[in-house]
TrEMBL record:
Enzyme Commission number(s) from the entry: 2.1.2.2
Protein name: Phosphoribosylglycinamide formyltransferase
Catalytic reaction equation(s): N(1)-(5-phospho-beta-D-ribosyl)glycinamide + (6R)-10-formyltetrahydrofolate = N(2)-formyl-N(1)-(5-phospho-beta-D-ribosyl)glycinamide + (6S)-5,6,7,8-tetrahydrofolate + H(+)
CDD domains in the cross-refs: FMT_core_GART
Active site (UniProt): 107
Organism: Sphingomonas vulcanisoli
Gene that encodes it: purN
Amino acid sequence: ARVGILISGRGSNMAALIEASHASDCPYEVALVVSNVPDAAGLAYAAANGIPQFAASHKGMKRAEFDALVDGALRDAGVEYVALAGYMRLLSPAFVDRWAGRMVNIHPSLLPAYKGLDTHQRVLDAGETRHGATVHLVTAELDDGPILAQAEVPVLEGDDAEALARRVLIEEHKLYPQALAELIRR
Ligand code: GRF
Protein backbone atom coordinates (compact mmCIF):
# COMPACT_ATOMS: atom_id res chain seq x y z
CA ALA A 1 0.00 0.00 0.00
CA ARG A 2 1.13 3.54 -0.67
CA VAL A 3 1.46 5.69 2.45
CA GLY A 4 1.71 9.46 2.81
CA ILE A 5 3.28 10.87 5.98
CA LEU A 6 2.41 14.33 7.32
CA ILE A 7 5.02 16.08 9.46
CA SER A 8 5.70 19.51 10.91
CA GLY A 9 9.11 19.07 12.52
CA ARG A 10 11.84 16.66 13.50
CA GLY A 11 10.29 13.66 11.77
CA SER A 12 11.81 10.86 13.84
CA ASN A 13 8.59 8.83 13.62
CA MET A 14 8.53 9.48 9.86
CA ALA A 15 12.10 8.16 9.69
CA ALA A 16 11.09 5.04 11.66
CA LEU A 17 8.19 4.43 9.25
CA ILE A 18 10.48 4.84 6.23
CA GLU A 19 13.16 2.61 7.73
CA ALA A 20 10.63 -0.15 8.49
CA SER A 21 9.20 0.09 4.96
CA HIS A 22 12.47 -1.23 3.54
CA ALA A 23 11.90 -4.69 5.07
CA SER A 24 10.85 -7.23 2.44
CA ASP A 25 7.73 -8.25 4.39
CA CYS A 26 6.51 -4.71 5.01
CA PRO A 27 3.09 -4.15 3.43
CA TYR A 28 3.60 -0.46 2.71
CA GLU A 29 5.90 1.94 0.93
CA VAL A 30 6.20 5.64 1.70
CA ALA A 31 5.05 7.44 -1.43
CA LEU A 32 5.06 11.02 -0.17
CA VAL A 33 6.10 13.13 2.80
CA VAL A 34 4.07 16.28 3.35
CA SER A 35 5.09 19.15 5.60
CA ASN A 36 3.24 22.33 6.47
CA VAL A 37 6.58 23.74 7.65
CA PRO A 38 8.81 24.23 4.60
CA ASP A 39 12.07 23.90 6.57
CA ALA A 40 11.01 20.99 8.80
CA ALA A 41 14.07 18.94 9.74
CA GLY A 42 12.38 15.72 8.66
CA LEU A 43 12.29 16.80 5.02
CA ALA A 44 16.06 16.41 4.68
CA TYR A 45 15.82 12.78 5.77
CA ALA A 46 13.00 12.16 3.29
CA ALA A 47 15.03 13.74 0.50
CA ALA A 48 18.12 11.71 1.39
CA ASN A 49 15.96 8.60 1.11
CA GLY A 50 14.63 9.59 -2.29
CA ILE A 51 11.07 10.09 -1.12
CA PRO A 52 9.00 12.70 -2.94
CA GLN A 53 7.84 15.56 -0.81
CA PHE A 54 5.25 18.27 -0.79
CA ALA A 55 6.13 21.17 1.49
CA ALA A 56 4.04 24.30 1.70
CA SER A 57 3.31 26.75 4.47
CA HIS A 58 -0.27 26.96 5.62
CA LYS A 59 0.22 30.59 6.61
CA GLY A 60 -2.34 32.96 5.16
CA MET A 61 -4.54 30.11 3.96
CA LYS A 62 -7.88 28.92 5.25
CA ARG A 63 -7.65 25.52 6.92
CA ALA A 64 -9.95 23.81 4.40
CA GLU A 65 -8.10 25.41 1.52
CA PHE A 66 -4.70 24.22 2.74
CA ASP A 67 -6.02 20.73 3.50
CA ALA A 68 -7.43 20.51 -0.06
CA LEU A 69 -3.95 21.30 -1.36
CA VAL A 70 -2.47 18.52 0.79
CA ASP A 71 -5.22 16.15 -0.30
CA GLY A 72 -4.43 16.91 -3.93
CA ALA A 73 -0.75 16.13 -3.39
CA LEU A 74 -1.65 12.84 -1.67
CA ARG A 75 -4.01 11.86 -4.50
CA ASP A 76 -1.42 12.74 -7.15
CA ALA A 77 1.05 10.45 -5.38
CA GLY A 78 -1.49 7.60 -5.33
CA VAL A 79 -1.54 7.56 -1.53
CA GLU A 80 -3.94 5.07 0.10
CA TYR A 81 -3.12 5.54 3.80
CA VAL A 82 -2.08 8.65 5.70
CA ALA A 83 0.15 8.63 8.78
CA LEU A 84 0.36 11.76 10.93
CA ALA A 85 3.81 11.99 12.52
CA GLY A 86 4.16 15.12 14.60
CA TYR A 87 1.81 17.02 12.30
CA MET A 88 0.94 20.03 14.43
CA ARG A 89 -2.23 21.13 12.65
CA LEU A 90 -5.86 20.35 13.25
CA LEU A 91 -7.43 18.83 10.13
CA SER A 92 -10.60 20.08 8.48
CA PRO A 93 -13.70 17.85 8.67
CA ALA A 94 -13.67 17.24 4.91
CA PHE A 95 -10.09 15.95 5.05
CA VAL A 96 -10.83 13.71 8.03
CA ASP A 97 -13.92 12.30 6.27
CA ARG A 98 -12.06 11.66 3.07
CA TRP A 99 -9.40 9.57 4.88
CA ALA A 100 -11.67 7.97 7.47
CA GLY A 101 -10.41 4.51 8.44
CA ARG A 102 -7.21 5.07 6.47
CA MET A 103 -5.54 7.79 8.53
CA VAL A 104 -3.57 7.14 11.71
CA ASN A 105 -1.83 9.27 14.32
CA ILE A 106 0.72 8.60 17.03
CA HIS A 107 0.26 10.38 20.32
CA PRO A 108 2.71 10.37 23.24
CA SER A 109 0.39 9.18 26.01
CA LEU A 110 -1.68 6.20 26.99
CA LEU A 111 -4.90 7.51 25.46
CA PRO A 112 -7.58 8.34 26.41
CA ALA A 113 -5.43 9.90 29.14
CA TYR A 114 -3.45 13.07 28.35
CA LYS A 115 -4.77 14.24 25.03
CA GLY A 116 -3.20 17.42 23.66
CA LEU A 117 0.22 18.96 24.18
CA ASP A 118 2.94 18.67 26.86
CA THR A 119 1.97 15.13 27.78
CA HIS A 120 5.29 14.22 29.42
CA GLN A 121 5.30 17.17 31.84
CA ARG A 122 1.64 16.66 32.65
CA VAL A 123 2.23 12.98 33.39
CA LEU A 124 5.10 13.92 35.74
CA ASP A 125 3.08 16.65 37.44
CA ALA A 126 0.27 14.18 38.09
CA GLY A 127 2.66 11.69 39.71
CA GLU A 128 1.80 8.88 37.30
CA THR A 129 3.87 5.72 37.44
CA ARG A 130 3.16 4.64 33.88
CA HIS A 131 3.15 6.45 30.56
CA GLY A 132 3.47 5.55 26.90
CA ALA A 133 2.30 6.07 23.36
CA THR A 134 -0.81 5.29 21.34
CA VAL A 135 -1.49 4.77 17.65
CA HIS A 136 -5.10 5.50 16.76
CA LEU A 137 -7.35 6.09 13.79
CA VAL A 138 -7.98 9.78 13.25
CA THR A 139 -11.46 11.15 13.77
CA ALA A 140 -12.72 14.72 13.96
CA GLU A 141 -11.88 15.03 17.68
CA LEU A 142 -8.25 15.76 18.65
CA ASP A 143 -6.31 12.64 19.79
CA ASP A 144 -9.52 10.63 19.73
CA GLY A 145 -10.64 7.77 17.54
CA PRO A 146 -10.30 3.99 17.84
CA ILE A 147 -7.05 2.82 19.42
CA LEU A 148 -4.97 0.47 17.26
CA ALA A 149 -1.97 -0.13 19.52
CA GLN A 150 -0.26 1.10 22.66
CA ALA A 151 3.18 0.82 24.23
CA GLU A 152 3.80 1.42 27.90
CA VAL A 153 6.88 2.70 29.73
CA PRO A 154 7.49 3.24 33.43
CA VAL A 155 7.91 6.70 34.89
CA LEU A 156 11.16 6.52 36.85
CA GLU A 157 12.41 8.30 39.93
CA GLY A 158 14.22 11.49 38.89
CA ASP A 159 12.68 11.67 35.41
CA ASP A 160 12.28 15.06 33.87
CA ALA A 161 10.12 15.66 30.80
CA GLU A 162 13.07 15.19 28.43
CA ALA A 163 14.14 11.87 29.93
CA LEU A 164 10.58 10.61 29.89
CA ALA A 165 10.04 11.80 26.30
CA ARG A 166 13.17 9.93 25.20
CA ARG A 167 11.95 6.71 26.80
CA VAL A 168 8.54 7.06 25.15
CA LEU A 169 10.03 7.96 21.76
CA ILE A 170 12.04 4.73 21.61
CA GLU A 171 8.74 2.86 21.94
CA GLU A 172 7.00 5.12 19.41
CA HIS A 173 9.56 4.20 16.77
CA LYS A 174 8.77 0.49 17.21
CA LEU A 175 5.04 0.85 17.74
CA TYR A 176 4.16 3.05 14.78
CA PRO A 177 5.49 0.88 11.92
CA GLN A 178 3.95 -2.22 13.54
CA ALA A 179 0.53 -0.65 14.02
CA LEU A 180 0.45 0.80 10.51
CA ALA A 181 1.47 -2.52 8.96
CA GLU A 182 -1.21 -4.29 10.99
CA LEU A 183 -3.90 -1.86 9.84
CA ILE A 184 -2.90 -2.30 6.22
CA ARG A 185 -2.83 -6.10 6.48
CA ARG A 186 -6.27 -6.42 8.06
C1 GRF B 1 6.08 12.46 18.85
O1 GRF B 1 6.26 12.38 20.24
C2 GRF B 1 4.67 12.10 18.47
O2 GRF B 1 4.11 11.13 19.30
C3 GRF B 1 3.94 13.40 18.65
O3 GRF B 1 4.84 14.39 18.24
C4 GRF B 1 6.18 13.89 18.35
C5 GRF B 1 6.77 13.98 16.98
O4 GRF B 1 8.14 13.66 16.97
N1 GRF B 1 2.70 13.38 17.91
P1 GRF B 1 8.84 13.36 15.59
O5 GRF B 1 8.62 14.58 14.70
O6 GRF B 1 8.21 12.14 14.99
O7 GRF B 1 10.28 13.16 15.91
